[in-house]
Structures are given as C-alpha cells and as structure tokens.
TrEMBL record:
Entry keywords, A to Z: Carbohydrate metabolism, Chitin degradation, Disulfide bond, Glycosidase, Hydrolase, Polysaccharide degradation, Secreted, Signal
Subcellular location: Secreted, Extracellular space
Stretch forming the signal peptide: 1-21
PROSITE patterns: GH18_1, GH18_2
First-listed, main subcellular location of the protein, grouped into a coarse class: secreted
Reaction it catalyzes: Random endo-hydrolysis of N-acetyl-beta-D-glucosaminide (1->4)-beta-linkages in chitin and chitodextrins
Protein name from the UniProt record: Acidic endochitinase
Protein's organism: Sphenostylis stenocarpa
Amino acid sequence: MASKTLASIILLLSLFTFSSSHPDNGGIAVYWGQDGREGDLTTTCDSGNYAIVLLAFLHKFGAGRTPEWNFAGHCDNGAMKKCTELESEIKHCQDNGIKVLLSIGGSPDYSNYSLSSAEDAKNVANYLYTNFLSGQFGPLGSVKLDGIDFDIEVTENHWDDLARELDYFRQTTGRYFYLAAAPQCPTNPIYYLGKAIATKLFDYIFVQCYNNPGCSYVSGTNALLNSWDTWVGLVASNNSLFVGLPASTSAGNGFIPAEVMNGEVLPYAKTASNYEGVMLWNRYHDVLNGYSDQILPNVIKSNLLIRLNVG
Ligand SMILES: *[C@@H]1O[C@H](CO)[C@@H](O)[C@H](O)[C@H]1NC(C)=O
Ligand SMILES: *[C@@H]1O[C@H](CO)[C@@H](O)[C@H](O)[C@H]1NC(C)=O
C-alpha cells in the first residue's frame, strides 16, 4: 500500500472552489447610517475596506405600524418619506462587488418594532421583499438590496417566522439574497434571536462581542475566545460567523486593540471553518479610528492549504 504520505495530496485552493453559497474570501461588514458625520455611502464603499455594508436601520415596523427608517440625516427620515437619493450610491457599491443589506431593528431606545403573529411576519416579509429586494420602485429607489440583517433587540417572538417567510421568497423567486443576524454574544440563552438562528437560514451571523463582559474583550481574550468556540459549535456549518466589534473605544465596551486582534484573535477565529470575517459598529467610529485599515489584511481568509488523505 502506497504510504499515506505519498497518497496525500496537497492542494492549494482558494475558498470559492468548494464553498457554493459563500463564494467570497471573507471580509469586513460595517454598519452605515447611524451618524451623519460618517460620510456618504459611495465614499464608504470606495474605501475598499468593506465586503458588506449594512444600512441601519428600518426601526419601526410590524404589528400594524407604518414602517419608518432612520439613516441619521443621510436622507429624509420618517414615515414613508423618500430616501431615493441613495439609489445610485447603493448601485455603485453593488457594482463594485460590495453587498448592501438593509438592517432592521436596532436599539429599543430609538426604535419601535415587533411582530404580533406568524401572519404579521408574513406581511412584514412581503413588505421587505417588495420594497427593498424586488427591484420595484420603493423607499430607496429601484434597488435590489442583497439581503436583510436582523439586529433584533426586543422579544423572541416570530423572528423565526420572518426568516422562514423571507426564505420562501428566495426559494420561489429564483433570486438569492442573504439573511443576516446580529445577536449579542451571550449564548445561555441567546437573546431574542435564538429561535431564528435555529432555523439555520442565516448566511451571516454577526456576533456582537461587545457590551457583554462575559463574552467580550475586557482585560484579556479568554472570555471572547471561549464565546467564539461556543458560537462555532452552535450555528450550522453553512452559516458564516463574523466577530462583531466596536470600531473604537467610544463605540462600546469590548474594543480590541488592533495588535491584539491581528496577533491573537483573528488567527484563532480563522481556525473555524465557518469564519467569514469581522463586523464593525460602525462606519463613523471606523473613520475616526482607522480600525479597518489596521486589521483588514488579517481579516481576509488566505488561500487554504488543504491536505487530502486519499485511500
Ligand atoms: C410603539 O408602537 C405601538 C404599536 O403601534 C404603539 O402603540 C406605541 O405607542 C409605540 N411606542 C412608542 C414609544 O412610540
Ligand atoms: C443550511 O443548510 C440547511 C440544511 O441543513 C438548509 O436548510 C439551510 O437553508 C442552509 N442555510 C443556508 C444559509 O444556506
């Protein structure tokens, strides 16, 4: 029998040769829309630092509410007002290969949303699909956003139904779009999004590793890396994980200095097969701190050296 050593083939593969639903090489996702000083969407995308931009937030919806969004002065805010000046910028980002998702929810201090029933989830899914994903003229113009991000911080109810209803659209319309969830890092229990994440329908899971000392960077990396291991074990293998962080010390507790990120956290996080990148809160703090510039080369998944044992 040929020796195992001879039979083993070393292949240099880039990830997209074997990952069908996530054909990219990882990257940084950033929240945009919560601070008027952060610069426009075009500049954000042209920085070259982001793979995904999350438009934040559609902050009022469900239970019969008239949907409203708040993009912090980037365009008209409020009920049913237009934000169509973003159309060309969104298309510019997409033309450059950057995925643009609408983030729904946000801090309960600045929002008002909930779903009252499975039927309500269906109505909200229909609203989201028609207005933001279908390409029909809607609040952001005639855009086909790349997906919907659930940044849900109130109640557990019916977010799983909403995920299933949105998935129904991607199954039946023939157009794939992404579902993302941004849970806080505690896992016992997972707040608000536990049932939704259990559907396995989320392409991207942005774990908010901040504002929770038990699973964030506080004085060392132990709590954070233990929590990362738990998340890796908890989500489906086809759901990609992002380490979610504040982009500066003033954006939230749990900021990780770039040298710790590059030297310790990213090398460890990347050992998970479903690692996909880093999520940053938010663009404004990233502009001030230059954080994505400092970590980007280490965020990207390098080509993988894979040893296949044949025989
Ligand atoms: C939130 O929405 C509900 C349902 O429309 C409404 O009754 C309630 O007054 C709203 N709360 C705030 C603080 O606006
Ligand atoms: C992950 O795989 C499960 C089947 O195990 C499937 O139902 C689900 O749609 C997949 N999720 C994604 C995001 O592709």
